[in-house]
Design goal:
By secondary structure, this protein is α+β, with helices and mostly antiparallel strands. It contains four helices and 14 strands. The strands form two sheets. A ten-stranded antiparallel β-sheet has the order 1-2-3-4-5-6-7-8-9-12, sandwiched between helices. Strand 3 and strand 4 form a beta hairpin. The N terminus is likely disordered.
Length: 228
Amino acid sequence: MRIGIGFSLFNFSVSRVTRQGFRALHLLILGLGVSAATAGLAESKSKQIPAPNLPWKDGEVLVVDNEGNHRMGLYDGGSVYFIYSDRLSTLTTPTTGWRLVCDKDAMTDKVNCMAIDEVARFGVYFQDGDEKPLGVKILEHDFPGESAMIRVGEAKPFTSDSDGWVFDQKLVEEIKEGGIVKTRIKVFPNKAYDDFATKRPVLDYGDAVLLMRHMQTNFGKISFDKPK
């Protein structure tokens, strides 16, 4: 059964139930797209205090500056994460980087999230309450009526629907295992192929999902205010 998904930035087409949630995520990705590297440059000029509540990891701090407070911590040795708001966080490791975007549905109050690897050009979408993700979205695919493709390592490639979605848990399992990710999209209007392959394996998916679940569970509860 085909599920419609509606997320205008990536030409989603999801069901009526989640359409508004995807539009909200679209705005968040555009408006809150702060890279971990850029934020890290400003840390030395900012004041750091212990995180006021609900840290993801021990030692998490609240970074107080004029640009807006955010939280920062270390995970698994050399990995660093930033939580910019209830809706956006990043996890940067020596090998890869993830952007995690969440939003609360205005009608259902469910918090839906997407784990995005922008370099590898895909995102994994999680609906609130579901143990497994709904599907994988091949980003930048925007050609009505045409499909895209994604491949992990030397495994068999997956073909998306016309909106760039792959609803197959086997693909998710392959992403978990890590590997070079290749995507193929078609460019409007001449149907030319645009192929892309990561230079390094896509890793740390499991860690990214753990941080995303922390945001999802504690949405609206994490404080970004300096304690009085």
